[in-house]
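Lab notebook, bench 4. Still working through the backlog of constructs that have no structural model yet. Next entry is a single chain of 237 residues. Request: give me the structure tokens for it.
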Amino acid sequence: MSTTQLILFSAIVVVGGFIQGSTGMGFALMVAPVISLFNPELLPVCVLILMLPLSMYVAHREHRAVDRPGSAWITAGRLLGTFGGLAVLAWLSPRSLAIFVGLSTIAAVAATWFMPAFTPGRGALATAGLITGVTETATGIGGPPLALVYQHQPVAVMRSTLAVCFLVGQVMSLIFLFAAGQVRQPQLLAAAQLLPALGVGALLSHYVHHRINERFMRSFVQLFAVASGVVLLVKAL
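Model written out:
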């Protein structure tokens, strides 16, 4: 990683760490495309490693608000979805899958505009986890289903619960990548170099996260999901 890349990546990591620390999502969506343009060999390991301390920080900061039963159902679904994602990769081409997931995500956001507020049950949580496991394993983007299913819950509940679910998923993904021999020294070195920038972003989020209300969060969730769908479509087309 060159000095220019380090400066650029550090800047986007500060912004991504601030946004995810404040809202509970958005880091990978911001950071991964920039890294993929200039040094794609660092993906996905570098981003996954950086997200570990960020997820731990958010989960610890608001641990009293974590929906523990909900995160358990999501994790169970996500574990099955991880294997489902591998099967889907063998069945569909990456391009076809990205188009399908991108369009489905945007359609899901549109559907929520006409739905009344709801509290997710076990089935909805497990299904969100399953979909997340499939899409994250196959495309690298898995946050929108979890964010959409929690969009009507208190901000602290959504932020902390997503952090716990992300943390479990990141550990699972890194274990699979390590077993497959995909974790390499340059990726580890890059993550270590970007950790200070991550710390700055997380620290800045500490001063604003409590100011975010439910109305703003729901709008952000929907924007985040649409942006995820658009990113997938652009990459596919």
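Notes after review: DSSP finds ten helices and no strands in the chain. The mean pLDDT is 86. Flag for follow-up if needed.
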